[in-house]
Design goal:
Length: 318
């Protein structure tokens, strides 16, 4: 079997020099999964993954990320110089940010530009050239082997929430308002995250999300976007891989990808949702009832939904 090399470029900060990107998502060395090897910075890859790439826009437009950043004076990068001579039919564009109202026009412009360079273009929204779920990535530092084989960690506490203080969109602010309501109603959970407001009763920041999830029966997994049939993010994958029972707020995509009973559906971000969290976290009974479904969901995430598995299946068509 010939191993195909997958290169990667992204507009996410910090990824442009990561030679080991996604290597923790496979039990094999150097990012190998099936018929592929993920080598993000390979100079001459067989395929190129454009992972949430924001294309240069005319000066009157901003990229998805730049719309929230302070103005930076950087020389414009020519897209062709980044493609490493990979032919168009072997360039894959995956957009993973949700179609929030504030950025939906930027997203549409990205898709339009991607047609110039890419043979496959997909994103978690109805107006994507190929609407589809985002293949799974996760943010635990544990090895694939550990995640695949480990039993549940000892559960020490009821519920946690790992989130941030980002407030740049209406949906971000809605989430922060819900956080404040939970704390005002004295709902018991441990809060972790960066840049949280001064009023937030937080436990601190984490270098590894595992430590803020694995010791808990329940984890609040609240998406920034819940209005279509495609969007579901690592918030759910991270929670399940840590053997938590997620209390999930998001769209119906999760129901189509994961087995019944593997997560709890938070009804709303209001008084009804607060009451639901209070009821479910009052005892670990729901976690014990869901344990087998969580175990099944973890295997689906690790082996089927895994972005490396998606890339392996996609490139096998060539």
């Amino acid at each position: 079997m010939t191993i195909k090399t997958i290169g990667m470029i992204s507009s996410y900060r910090g990824l442009e020099k990561r030679c080991d990107w996604l290597w923790q998502q496979t039990p094999h060395q150097f990012g190998t999964w099936g018929n592929i090897r993920m080598q993000a910075i390979a100079p001459n890859p067989d395929f190129l993954l454009m992972y949430q790439v924001d294309f240069p826009k005319p000066t009157q437009h901003k990229s998805w990320l730049d719309s929230f950043r302070k103005k930076q004076h950087k020389p414009e990068v020519k897209v062709n110089s980044l493609l490493r001579d990979v032919p168009k039919e072997k360039i894959i564009y995956l957009l993973r940010e949700p179609p929030l109202d504030e950025v939906v026009e930027f997203t549409k412009q990205n898709y339009q530009e991607a047609h110039k360079y890419c043979g496959y273009i997909s994103g978690p929204d109805d107006f994507a050239p190929t609407p589809d779920y985002m293949p799974a990535i996760w943010y635990h530092s544990n090895s694939f082997k550990d995640l695949n084989e480990m039993p549940p960690a000892e559960k020490m506490s009821s519920c946690s929430w790992i989130t941030s203080g980002i407030s740049r969109t209406v949906k971000h602010r809605q989430r922060l308002n819900f956080l404040q309501s939970l704390q005002d109603n004295e709902i018991k959970f441990d809060l972790y995250g960066r840049d949280l407001p001064t009023w937030a009763n937080k436990s601190g920041e984490l270098s590894n999300k595992w430590y803020g999830m694995a010791p808990y029966y329940y984890n609040l997994a609240i998406e920034n976007y819940a209005e279509n049939n495609w969007y579901v993010s690592e918030k759910l994958w991270d929670s399940l891989l840590a053997w938590c029972l997620p209390i999930y707020y998001g769209g119906p995509a999760a129901d189509k990808l994961l087995p019944p009973g593997s997560f709890l559906r938070l009804p709303s971000l209001d008084e009804k949702g607060i009451a639901y969290i209070k009821e479910m976290t009052s005892s670990p009974d729901a976690w014990y009832q869901a344990k087998e479904a969580i175990a099944e969901a973890r295997q689906i995430i690790l082996h089927k939904l895994n972005l490396l598995n998606w890339l392996s299946e996609y490139t096998a068509k060539f």
